[in-house]
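User: Before I run my own analysis I want an independent prediction to cross-check against. Here's the chain; please return only the structure tokens and, at the end, one sentence I can use as a sanity check.
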Amino acid sequence: MYMSSIRYLFRRASLGSFFQLLCCSLFLITIAGAQDRSARLVLSELMLAEKADEAGLIEELSQYGDPEIAVIYEAWRTGGVYTLTDASGDVRLLQFAEQTGWSSVATGDPVELTEAEAESTQKERASRGVRKAMLGLLDTLGLKADDPKERIDSAIKMGQSQKLKFVQALEDRLQIETDEEVKDAIREALAISLLANGNDEQVLTAVQELTVLKSSASRGFLDKVLKSQVEAGAPDSDIALAVEKAHRVIEEHLKLVDFVGSFFRGFSTGSVLLIVSFGLAITFGLMGIINMAHGEFVAIGGYTTFMVQNFFIRTWGAESAAFGWYFVVALPVSFLVAGFIGLLLEKSIIRFLYRRPLESLLCTWGISMVMQQMFRLIFGAANVQVNVPNWLMGSVGFGGFDMSYTRLMIVVIAFGVIIATWLLLRKTSLGLHIRAVMQNRSMASSLGIPVSRVNSMTFALGCGLAAIGGCVLSQIGNVGPLMGQAYIVDSFMVVVIGSVGNLLGAGISAMGIGMVDQLLQPSLGPVMGKITVFFVIILFLQWRPGGLFPSRSRSLDD
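Assistant: Structure tokens:
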């Protein structure tokens, strides 16, 4: 008896589970079938539907976030959709555009029509009731888009319009949204909308919500709320006090964002200066050569990047996945090209100018002018375009502050240059020879170190590092004959402040100059900010003529 009861319950449980599984399967099949219906297909059915079926199809269409809905509807509303009835009585919906010709509304595929068929088409227009219903659907279309950025933009527009009809749509979307960034944008938009459409309790809650979100976009709307409270004779109400607190919190947040933004821009600017000036610090410290053509090697890096980009475009095309790797290839290629040119320049001209600073300054200045003219003859006087790879587009944000991937890449490459240079100088025989020659050239020569070879390799290394700086600069600025001139003065300032030949000092001074420049610009402007930086540098050199880490070597006194 006991065992039979157990078998009976087991059979009941199995049948129940089977029935539940069957229901779930049917439900999933139904959902899958609904998802197979594209927005185009539903819209085409709406165009041919009877009046009684229009509401259901519009409701189904409201579940889609396809941007094509707006495009096709606009064509329907303005008479760009036609019907074509064949001999069997079947009706086809066609869309006509001047650029693309005839296409199917249901699939988007192009359609070829004979002249007789084109003349027999009938123009279709949306009825007044459909236009009214579709207007509300199109206003909230962006909230259902697949791209989170489109949903954010749509929510912001709906919130700033402060229209009552959008409140319910925003609340509904907030319940099902999964992306945290989009949810914050919807919360902000909903709070801004409620400032104009809510009762006192809802307005107070909205103000508190905007305070938590530190919404800079809500400042103008909060001012209107505060003004209405003052006009109503309630300047000390809970709402008015909450608005004043919101203003304080938002302003403090904006100041912090501005400071962090200036700090990061200064850090990235310092990183560029570090890459450009490292090579100058090595050559100046080792050979005593004032290389006024250093900026042109920066331009060589930029033009080499441009040529590598064009090679990738010709080989794989600008839209291919391989095109995005051109910048990775351009970095070592720029280094090698500039290093080779620098090696030829050292062996042909620079080696005769050692310990002759005035002659080296005049000669390299003339070389820089010749190189600039060569750039104009080869590439033209106008700037050339270097496209940013797709993987460097966009930014990463936190706390209201956005950092572009390009600027982050510059910082990463700068740290890579620091590590690579340190390893070269500390872990290789060439680095040992470079340090020996920098400390005492005569003693290094007497010990058998090939000083002339070290000079050649060091000058080539400095030119290659300058080209890496030009490759990096091609992603944030213009590539032209004078692109390096904007950094040559700052690079010499970096070398002098950091102490001649001292790479640690060059790195610290590059970051210091970059950050001080960017931190001063918001308050003083770009021109006065730069002048102030130079003035501070002059005062610093009056105090410490030898820079941050002055050398004790006797070889510099010769």
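Sanity check: The chain has a mean pLDDT of 83.
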